[in-house]
């Protein structure tokens, strides 16, 4: 059984999102007309603002929008109630309030829309409507748009954040496999490793996956999905990413010939076996396939034997200090990577069972 949740039908993401947004806007417009909201356009604007590519992201945007609206609308309402309706007094107070709200928004990102809401309340208020009613209508309109947006994301071609995160992590694992094979080729051919672009791309993908993890956890916390998400797999992948970077740094220059004679083939084999395990983990994560770490275990044992032979040989004592340090560093990094990959395979298996 795959740990990947069922996703929306096989539609292009942009088309699926367009369908969700169009339906949400139609429903919101109908509700605005039914309730007779005087500024119902803001409910539709909210739908367009909060609807994101996944359920968790939409829920987070709707929550932030509502909090900011309440803060901004109350601020604007207080200004209208406490100050004389003189243009200069209103302008000065509004500028001051917007400044304070912007400072607050700089510390709390979810309040970024509060200054805009305060300005809209002050500048669009009509004297024929009581301030309290105007502020309440504003909050209700934003709430309506947010609720419709979240419900549309939940029930119309839903895309749970967990599925998006798993796809992202599957791509990260495939990139890791490519990097490990690149490092194995460089070690075997005694060439320098320069994987800077791939490492940057992998890091960016990991950061994006972390964002998806937060969205997935938000979905669970808000009761939008029944299945929770653990951060164990992303956390382990960060360790593996750091380990691959460490190995690449050690291979920025070819190893000494004496070291290559003893540990070169075994280290190359270990890197290639970890690349195969990374691909197996990607399939296990995205497709629910079984993961067998046995070949990687055998490669690790072969490397340990080769490294022990080097340690006990006279060549180790005759090698320059820098060369010895790099070989020992490589041994430490490969063993740590081996442990992290074993941990990753176990975490994926646990998630699949769960």
From TrEMBL:
Tagged with keyword RNA-binding: no
InterPro entries: Memb_transporter_dom (IPR049453)
Residues spanning the membrane: 40-59, 66-83, 89-106, 113-133
Topology in the lipid bilayer: Multi-pass membrane protein
A Pfam family it matches: FUSC_2
GO cellular component, one term: membrane
Location in the cell: Membrane
The Integral membrane bound transporter domain, residue ranges: 28-151
Protein name stated in the entry: FUSC family protein
Organism: Croceibacterium xixiisoli
């Amino acid at each position: 059984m795959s740990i990947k949740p069922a996703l929306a039908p096989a539609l292009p993401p942009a088309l699926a999102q367009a369908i969700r947004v169009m339906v949400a806007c139609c429903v919101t417009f109908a509700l605005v007309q039914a309730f007779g909201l005087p500024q119902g356009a803001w409910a539709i604007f909210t739908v367009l603002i909060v609807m994101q590519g996944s359920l968790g992201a939409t829920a987070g945007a709707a929550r932030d929008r509502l909090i900011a609206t309440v803060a901004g609308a109350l601020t604007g309402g207080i200004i209208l109630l406490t100050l004389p309706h003189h243009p200069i007094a209103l302008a000065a107070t509004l500028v001051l309030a917007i400044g304070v709200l912007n400072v607050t928004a700089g510390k709390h990102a979810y309040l970024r829309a509060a200054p805009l809401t305060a300005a809209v309340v002050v500048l669009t208020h009509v004297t024929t409507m009581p301030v309290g009613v105007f502020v309440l209508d504003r909050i209700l309109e934003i709430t309506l748009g947010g609720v419709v947006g979240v419900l549309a994301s939940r029930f119309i071609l839903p895309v749970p954040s967990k599925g998006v995160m798993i796809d992202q992590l599957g791509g990260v694992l495939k990139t890791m496999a490519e990097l490990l094979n690149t490092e194995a080729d460089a070690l075997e051919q005694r060439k320098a490793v320069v994987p800077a672009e791939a490492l940057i791309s992998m890091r960016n993908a990991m950061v994006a996956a972390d964002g998806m993890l937060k969205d997935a956890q938000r979905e669970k916390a808000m009761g939008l999905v029944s299945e929770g998400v653990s951060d164990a797999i992303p956390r382990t992948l960060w360790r593996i990413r750091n380990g691959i970077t460490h190995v690449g740094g050690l291979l920025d220059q070819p190893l000494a010939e004496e070291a290559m004679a003893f540990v070169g083939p075994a280290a190359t084999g270990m890197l290639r076996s970890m690349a195969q395990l990374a691909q197996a983990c990607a399939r296990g994560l995205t497709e629910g396939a079984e993961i067998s770490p046995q070949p990687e275990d055998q490669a690790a044992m072969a490397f340990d034997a080769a490294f022990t032979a080097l340690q006990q040989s006279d060549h180790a004592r005759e090698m320059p200090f820098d060369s010895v340090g790099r070989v020992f560093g490589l041994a430490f990094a490969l063993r740590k990577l081996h442990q992290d990959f074993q941990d990753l395979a176990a975490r994926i298996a646990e998630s699949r069972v769960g």
